[in-house]
Amino acid sequence: MGAVSVCERIRHAIAACEKLCIEGDILRFTVSIGVAEIVEEDDSVSLLKRAEAALLAGGNAGGNVTFVNAGQSCRAISASEDVVSPVERYRVILDDSDRR
């Protein structure tokens, strides 16, 4: 499972959590996540700076989103790129193991 898929699963899980009610105010939690894909010229500093840029792009976009920085720019993960469900992933793993 790739980092983007893990981040999207975390983001969806947090957004789906029960709402918290404190003194009549309902609080809803969401998270923005920034991911940097490593490129050949990366060192640890440049990789972290690009991950931070992706995180800031998510916050600037309004939050509750995963942004990826693949080296040149940041882009949001769209709904059509959503993660494969755990059930589907398990089925694929089983299908692959049948071929061994």
List keywords for this structure.
3 helices, two-stranded antiparallel sheet, Alpha-Beta Plaits, 100 residues, alpha+beta
Structure explained in plain terms:
The protein is 44% helix and 17% strand. It is an alpha+beta fold. The strands form two sheets. It has a three-stranded mixed sheet with strand order 3-4-5. The two termini are 20 Å apart. It has helices spanning 3-16, 44-60, 86-98, and strands at residues 20-22, 25-27, 33-36, 66-69, 74-76. A hairpin with a 4-residue loop joins strand 4 and strand 5 (74-76). Mean pLDDT is 81; it is low at 82-100.
**Structural classification:** alpha+beta
| Spatial separation of the terminal alpha carbons | 20 Å
Which spans of ≥5 residues are poorly predicted at pLDDT below 50? 82-100
CATH topology: Alpha-Beta Plaits
- Under the CATH scheme, which architecture would be assigned? 2-Layer Sandwich
Strand content: 15-25%
Mean pLDDT: 81
Largest sheet, spatial ordering of strands: 3-4-5
For the secondary structure, the number of strands is: 5
Total count of domains? 1
What pattern of helices and strands is seen along the backbone? Answer: HEEEHEEH
Radius of gyration: 17 Å
Task: Please tally the helical runs, counting DSSP H or I stretches of 4 or more residues.
Answer: 3
CATH class: Alpha Beta
Helix share bin: 40-55%
Instruction: Name the CATH homologous superfamily.
Output: Reverse transcriptase/Diguanylate cyclase domain
Biggest sheet overview: 3 strands, mixed
Large-scale geometry: elongated
- Assembly category: single chain
